[in-house]
Write a structure and sequence with these properties.
By secondary structure, the protein is of the alpha+beta class. It has a single domain, classed as 2-Layer Sandwich (Beta-Lactamase). The chain is about 40% helix and about 20% strand. It is built from four helices and seven strands; from the N terminus they run ββαββαβββαα. A five-stranded antiparallel beta sheet has the order 4-3-7-6-5, with helices on both faces. Strands 1-2 form a two-stranded antiparallel ribbon. A hairpin with a 4-residue loop joins β6 and β7. It is globular, with a radius of gyration of 16 Å. The protein starts with 10 loop residues before the first strand and ends with a helix. About 25% of the residues are buried.
Length: about 180
Amino acid sequence: MTIPPLPDETVNLPGGVTLFPGQDKALDAILDDLKDKCPALFILLAHTSGQIISLKGERGKADLVALGSLVAGDLAASQEIARLTEQYQNYQMTLREGTQSNAFITEAGQYTVLYVRIDKEVPLGWARLLIKEASRQVAEVIAAKPEELQDLDLGLTEERLSSLVGDDLNSIWKS
């Protein structure tokens, strides 16, 4: 089983992506914030190759290495379907509805995929809004140089959430 990196290690991922300790800490903060505010039962952040970067929440009995690979493969298939049907856009999301929980799979930039499982009682629109923003922030952290991290506006603060809700409501009325 692949174990997420320790905060003081530099991790080299496929495709020439390197995660530095500061980036790892920023990713953990984003995912912790998402887990608390959504709330999420389980979060998996993986490279598009399927390599696990970070895990949060109840893991259950799932084979995490297999899950990372399947989530990455699911995202790749969904992206290709969107391209073939001319529906592709950044940060697209797939929703899997279950009897007790729902799961979202979304790209989090060019190199990462985010899988988030939520309780069935969590409103889908709320979860979608938070997951989309967390995905955008993950992409920013991975693309940033370590010295640029302090300049990023990260987190799901009350101000940011209020702004996101307002933006989404306003977008309903745009054609």
